[in-house]
């Protein structure tokens, strides 16, 4: 049997989890942190899609239709605050829940709130706290269900 390529360029998709708790777009330029967040969320039943930075996040968000996004702050090309601000400026993503996963200094929290961020998880994070914050954001989105103007329900088919 010939070898096949298991990973192409672009976003990394987790395996499809039947009955998943929701889809989360994890954005961090640090591969180890990205993988750590991904694994912790997958263990709790979330489907996870990853992006390397804010520019990639904005490129894929419409295609993957996440229920929530986690953003690092310091990233190349487009940082977490600029990404959050652009998500809020777009009618299709303005209601999408966003959590900053970073050092969470007072300045970062103030800047994040101004950019429309919904929650903050301080690095180094406790996996249980990360999962709790993401679950709360996904549940809030499900109640609001305003993404893309879909009727009640998940809206992804």
Outline the structure in words.
With 157 residues, the chain is of the alpha/beta class. Helix content is 39%, strand content 17%. The protein contains 5 helices and 6 strands. It has helices at residues 31-43, 54-64, 80-89, 106-115, 127-144, and strands at 12-13, 22-27, 46-51, 68-71, 98-102, 119-122. The protein has a 6-stranded mixed β-sheet with strand order 1-3-2-4-5-6, with helices on both faces. α3 links the parallel β4 (68-71) and β5. α2 (54-64) packs parallel to α3 and α3 (80-89) packs parallel to α4 (106-115). The radius of gyration is 15 Å and the shape is globular. The protein starts with 11 loop residues before the first strand and ends in a 13-residue tail after the last helix.
List keywords for this structure.
disordered C terminus; globular; alpha/beta; disordered N terminus; single chain; 157 residues
Topology of helices and strands:
Elements: E1 12-13, E2 22-27, H1 31-43, E3 46-51, H2 54-64, E4 68-71, H3 80-89, E5 98-102, H4 106-115, E6 119-122, H5 127-144
Parallel strand pairs: 2-3, 2-4, 4-5, 5-6
Antiparallel strand pairs: 1-3
Helix pairs in contact: 2-3, 3-4
Please count the helical segments.
5
Calculate Rg over CA atoms. 15 Å
What's the helix-strand series? EEHEHEHEHEH
Unreliable stretches (pLDDT < 50, length at least 5) are 1-18, 146-157
**Global outline:** globular
N-end to C-end Cα span: 34 Å
Average pLDDT confidence is: 83
DSSP strand (E) fraction?
15-25%
**Helical proportion?**
25-40%
Kindly name the structural category. Answer: alpha/beta
How many β-strand runs?
Answer: 6
Quaternary organisation: single chain
Main sheet record: 6 strands, mixed
């Amino acid at each position: 049997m010939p070898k096949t390529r298991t990973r192409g360029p672009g976003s990394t998709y987790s395996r499809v989890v039947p009955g998943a708790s929701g889809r989360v777009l994890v954005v961090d330029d640090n591969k180890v942190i990205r993988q750590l967040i991904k694994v912790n969320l997958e263990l709790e039943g979330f489907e996870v899609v990853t992006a390397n930075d804010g520019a990639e996040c904005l490129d894929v968000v419409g295609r993957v239709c996440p229920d929530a996004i986690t953003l690092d702050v310091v990233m190349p090309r487009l940082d977490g605050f600029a990404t959050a601000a652009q998500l809020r400026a777009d009618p299709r993503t303005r209601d999408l829940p966003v959590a900053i996963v970073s050092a969470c200094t007072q300045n970062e929290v103030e800047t994040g709130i101004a950019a429309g961020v919904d929650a903050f998880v301080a690095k180094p994070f406790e996996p249980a706290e990360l999962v709790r914050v993401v679950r709360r954001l996904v549940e809030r989105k499900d109640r609001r269900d305003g993404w893309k103007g879909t009727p009640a329900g998940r809206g992804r088919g």
